[in-house]
Amino acid sequence: MKIRIGVIFGGESVEHEVSIISAVQAMNKMDGEKYEIIPIYITKDREWYTGEALKDIETFQDMDLIKRYCKNVVLYAKKDKFVLENKKGIFRKIVAEIDMAFPIVHGTNVEDGVLQGYLQSIGIPFVGVDVYAAVVGQDKIFMKQIFEQEKIPVSPYTWFYDVDYEENPDEVIAKIEKLKYPVIIKPCTLGSSVGISVAHDREELIQGLENAVTYDSRVVVEKVVENLMEVNISVLGNYENQQVSAIEEVTPKNAFLTYADKYIGNGKSKGKLRGAKYKGTSKGMASASRVVPAKIEDNLREEVEEIAVKAFKTLKSSGVVRIDFLIDKENKKVYINEVNNIPGSLSFYLWSPIGKDYSELLDDMINIGIKDYKKRTEKVHSFESNILKGFSEMNGVKGIKGAKKITK
Question: What is the fold, at CATH topology level, of the domain defined by 226-372?
Fold first, then answer.
């Protein structure tokens, strides 16, 4: 009997289109002999849809196609089953059942623990990180603070709230300028390089800050690493066991790997994907300019691998993550940049060079998710208590009101 996998993607996020690309790639590579793949698409308006048409990237060029050929559904637990129920009509109908959820989502409101919290609350097994790792993995400031505590090297940085900048921009700018130019400006909880810019002077800094605060309530500013080599590695596993992928050297055309570098590719545009231009030949993160394996010395490679595993375990990550590093080539210093809990294209292109194809990688992720679920359900989450005994003996609502008076 096949395992029914509900692949969840989309969502109210600036990385909405990126999620669609990643999910369609993955659904086309899942082993159809083992799994029944059920796509679950969340629109930017937070509506959930399911239907076979969602496996085709062409469908997302026209929202009317989705409304016409797919079912508007809700996901919930019903008598130890996890069902997708049609929201439309007088008589609501169960459209599908799933055994496990596979979130392939990027960005705010989905990758940041919000979706994982819902899945965990209804009790469904799911692939990837839990709520806690998801929150920290999406929040660049929390992540850096935890890494600092664990003596994991991060580049010099500072951060502030949007209200700090609005009320006292000179003070914020002065704090940033202590880092010395050039600096890189990042919205705290976004990914895919959205809202990021590099500033070489005060004028560029102000432009970058004003752009960043439109995306997030907190902004992090980092000192640009000199003599920079940017490398990425993927880690597969959970807190018990970890494997590392090949290391890639990223070779962007710009000062940092932009959204276009990652997802647009070099093909000719064939249209729009839900309001954003996309390239028909794009392979997501797999299309970015890179050298695999990275041409780095053995000692640096070993250091990157060791730090990657330590960071993975520190955040209690699970499934596949991509961890980005900044290396000062001249001084041989390695800095962790950030952890991507649900990386674009699930970083399959980093596993292929060491003999693990995409289908096998997806299979491993699902098996890890099953193991994580079993471990979660083995733990004690509740206990017998008579704390409500007194309330049960009172006379309905009046009794409760009386209890409130006594406790005042």
Answer: D-amino Acid Aminotransferase; Chain A, domain 1 (3.30.470)
Helix ranges (H only) for 30-130 are 63-69, 114-122
The rounded distance, in Å, linking the Cα atoms of 328 and 332 is: 5
d(Cα 47, Cα 254) in Å, to the nearest integer? Answer: 36
Q: Do residues 269 and 229 make contact, with C-beta atoms less than 8 angstroms apart?
A: no
Which of 226, 234, 236, 208 lies closest to 335 in space, CA to CA? 226
Q: Report mean pLDDT in 10-residue bins for the chain, 408 residues.
A: 97 92 97 97 96 95 91 94 87 92 94 96 97 95 97 98 97 98 94 82 97 95 96 97 97 59 44 40 60 95 98 98 97 96 96 97 98 90 65 53 50
As a 3-state breakdown, the chain gives helix, strand, coil percent values, each rounded to 5, of: 40, 25, 35
CATH of domain 157-223: 3.30.1490.20
| Token code pair at residue 144 | 């850096």
Residue 153 CA from chain centroid, whole number: 22
Predicted model pTM: 0.85
All structural domains of the chain with their residue ranges: 3-126, 157-223, 226-372
